[in-house]
């Protein structure tokens, strides 16, 4: 599995979010439905328009897993964009702290390719490498093409 390690400074994002469950793989169904929903109701494009972009991700969209609750087996899934100003009360704002990131590349139809990559990273990468998930850090999907 190919990956690179990069350093990223902190940055802010705006977007929308849902609570997703890990129980019985529900997140693998809930998250694609959430993406379909924000595309269908055009809120994705409203968020894109409101976001300013920034020095870390530019205007690339993200999907992010935040606020893991191991006891409840759930987390917040966030769709959004980097922003350099905090002006919109219409969208959720989150701060992503500076950290080291393992960057993996996924190619192919997004839903299948990304879910396969997640399973490989969680089921193989963290099990066989010296790298560990930083406590209280999100997991981000950065999309360069829509």
Labels describing this entry:
globular, Multidrug-efflux Transporter 1 Regulator Bmrr, Chain A, 146 residues, alpha+beta, 28% helix, 7 strands, two-stranded antiparallel ribbon, 5-stranded antiparallel β-sheet
Verbal overview:
This protein is of the alpha+beta class and 146 residues long. The chain has one domain (3-143): Regulatory factor, effector binding domain (Multidrug-efflux Transporter 1 Regulator Bmrr, Chain A), CATH 3.20.80.10. The protein is 28% helix and 36% strand. It contains 3 helices and 7 strands; from the N terminus they run ββααββββαβ. It has helices at 27-40, 43-50, 110-128, and strands spanning 3-8, 11-21, 61-69, 74-83, 92-96, 99-104, 139-143. The strands form 2 sheets. It has a 5-stranded antiparallel β-sheet with strand order 5-2-4-3-7. Strands 1-6 form a two-stranded antiparallel ribbon. The longest helix is centred in the last third of the chain and has 19 residues, at 110-128. It is globular, with a radius of gyration of 15 Å. The chain starts with a strand and ends with a strand.
Could you give the topology of this structure?
Elements: E1 3-8, E2 11-21, H1 27-40, H2 43-50, E3 61-69, E4 74-83, E5 92-96, E6 99-104, H3 110-128, E7 139-143
From the N-terminal CA to the C-terminal CA, the straight-line distance is 24 Å
Largest sheet: 5 strands, antiparallel
Under CATH, the topology can be stated as Multidrug-efflux Transporter 1 Regulator Bmrr, Chain A
> Percent helix among the residues?
25-40%
* Residue windows where pLDDT falls under 50 for at least 5 positions: none
Overall spatial form: globular
Give the strand content. Answer: 35-45%
Any idea what the CATH architecture is? Alpha-Beta Barrel
User: How many β-strand runs?
Assistant: 7
Instruction: Return the CATH class.
Output: Alpha Beta
């Amino acid at each position: 599995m190919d990956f690179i390690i990069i350093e990223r400074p902190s940055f802010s994002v705006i977007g929308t979010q849902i609570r997703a469950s890990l129980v019985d793989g529900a997140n693998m169904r809930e998250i694609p439905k959430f993406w379909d929903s924000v595309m269908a109701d055009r809120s994705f494009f409203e968020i894109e328009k409101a976001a300013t972009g920034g020095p870390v991700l530019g205007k690339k969209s993200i999907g992010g897993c935040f606020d893991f609750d191991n006891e409840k087996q759930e987390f917040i899934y966030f769709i959004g964009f980097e922003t350099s100003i905090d002006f919109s009360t219409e969208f959720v704002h989150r701060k992503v702290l500076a950290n080291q990131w393992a960057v993996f590349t996924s190619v192919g139809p997004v839903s299948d390719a990304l879910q396969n990559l997640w399973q490989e990273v969680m089921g193989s990468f963290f099990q066989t490498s010296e790298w560990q998930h930083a406590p209280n850090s999100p997991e981000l999907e950065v999309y360069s093409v829509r």
